[in-house]
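Q: Is it fine to ask for two folds in a single conversation?
A: Yes, each is treated on its own. Send the first.
Q: Here.
A: Result:
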Amino acid sequence: MRTTISTPILSYMKQLESQGLTDIEEICDYLYEHYVQQVDQGLYSNGRYIERGSDVKAKVSTALGDSSQECILWCINHYLGLNRNQKVIDKVCKAVQEYGTGSGTSALSGGMSTLHKQVEHKLQQLIGKESVLLFPTGFTANLGCLSALPGKNDIIIFDRECHASIIDGIKLSGKKWVTFKHNNLHDLEQKLSKYQGDYENIFVVVESAYSMSGDLAPLQEIVLLKQKYKFLIYVDEAHTFGIYGTNGAGYCSHLNLVENIDFIVASLSKAIASIGGFVAMKSKYIPLLHWRANAYTFQTCLTPGDAAAILASLEEIENNSRLINSLHKNNQYMRQHLKNLGFDLGTSQSPIIPIFIPDVEKLQAFNKELYSRGIFSVSIFYPVVKPHEGRIRFTLSTTHTKEHIDTTVKVLHELGLKHGVIKSEMVAA
């Protein structure tokens, strides 16, 4: 069997399996051949890497490491640029000198340090929940919580665009689950009405901002549904914690909904520029997660240096309101220019700006030329998103300058016209 070079790897794998090819050695032979073709043609954007770590501008190398390109980066989630903040770096270095490089074991086995406890206390104060439980990653926070929280007779209803960590956690729970259409309150209410009374508890799981589409969840309206239906709300704030709300407390805090949300989960690897994740909730849930969330119980704590980076980042956000304000100004500035030029940005609002290009071959060619012009992001297509919802994402940072944005918009405009992604009569404001 052969396929066009634009066919995504996982889609290709499903094609092979549907035709009866299930031997893993043969499948890997086909996939590797396909991968090499994509790399040779410069279409495998996922294989590029940043030579000296993430920044808004850096040298990017190819999958084979045989060439490099100086690029403006638009695929990094460090919204506030704190990974390059000298005060944060200095405090991390000091912590490593004092606490060492690793934690050595899980939290329940003695891996916690004073720094870890300070992180939990700081997050609890910032968000305003009774307790916070710190996980080694944002992925495992969702995996651990959602595999452990639902009871034997519970059901989980989640937005169909939720992150893979949420889906994996839900599946690992072994409990009944259904999806509702993305940000569709009518569909959610239909599901709530259908299952109300059939289960002891209903968990409604959403993200405050969705990483693939950049849109915000209708949290106020979901909370209002609680007046009619009984359910628990679980919100993943991975892409809003640190950049919304007072001192970056998050989107739930921004909307004054913290008391109405049962579980607030977030990653600490994005705006906070470290690693780790947490769940903020009532204290009564702590023992359950200690003993049922394997991703917590059996996973080594994040390093002391990572904990120090979290504390230092939160301090920087608290002491410098300009960080968040500059990010949202950049988002508004770039978004408006792209809209004026006629790019399809979907319903995005957050500092994640997707440009939708449904044709996969056009999408890959477009992204390849972007890279050659010094603009680096990653193509996203099926099965990560629906077959005709391919896109390139542009993730804004406080440290992106007006020049970075203007240069990128200019290149996007030229390539958009060349590839028929926008119409020629559209002009920038």
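Q: Second one now.
A: Result:
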Amino acid sequence: MERTQETYEDVGGPSQRLIPVSPAHRKLWARRRKAMEASGCRHSPIGVKPAGANAAFENALSLFEVLLKSCGLYQVGHVIARDIRVRQIDLQFDNLPERFDGYTILHLTDLHIDKFEGLDDAIISAVAGADVDLCVMTGDFRAADDGPHEQIMPPMGQLVAAIQPQDGFYAVLGNHDDHQLGLAIEQQLGIRLLANESDIIRRGNSQIRLIGADDVNRFYTADADRVLSGGHEDFTIALVHSPEMATEAADGGCDLYLSGHTHGGQVCLPGGKPLVTHLNVNQHLASGQWRVGKMQGYTSSGAGVSGPPVRFFSRGEVTFFRLTRRARI
């Protein structure tokens, strides 16, 4: 990895945020990302899979959709997919800075916002008027794996306009997002992209750190390891598209890990057990709250869907977190 000196630009505002500016790192990231996208291969921590390796699974999804339609279950699953729930979760930490006690975060992931007509309206309705300190998005903004992204910009703009986070918007990319999409949401919508980068949010003399790793399921590089396992002294929140780097983040001293990617299984057995997680590692972290070492984590089932636009024994979600300091005796 090329080493660059990190500089900061004071952008003011209620949180007095300092925004990392590292053009050399971003240029290197974009070049590597573009090359991986062009190859069609899947790069993950366990190795590289050639282009077309998932063709059999894609064919199986098409057959599954035909079967659902033939037995009358397709519309049932589609109605469930449109029904997005709002989850509210309180998390306690021993080391949360006192100035951040009660800090609120809206977590959005796997929007796939152009997947079917009306999905964007359902997501916007679920979050409209949300008054939170921070909004984070952990990837998969569009439905397709590749191709154009211009079609998602209007609904994404409406979504951003519907939320009023004091400390703004942060995002990482997923396996459905190319580097051009990432740059577009940053430049056109003001969503701060973290591409194996970190940022600081301040409250007076206190601060927390946000770390964002690029997608590790399809576009993994060692930079994701470096940014997550660097040894963090601040209270640190890791944003990663999938839970596949949870061990590295916990070992690196992260306190909270927010992810998605799995859709909570999307199609599950009764009781919510996923049939497919699309995880190379950490399949046991496919849904809901979990803990690795001292680090707390959450894998959201996401707001959107992929493949057939249906859900069974699984619900789409938007998630509100409230962080509090654990009372000391």
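Q: Anything structural to flag on that second result?
A: Two points. The CA atoms of residues 158 and 322 lie 25 Å apart. Helices lie at 23-39, 55-70, 74-82, 119-127, 153-161, 179-189, 222-228, 246-251.
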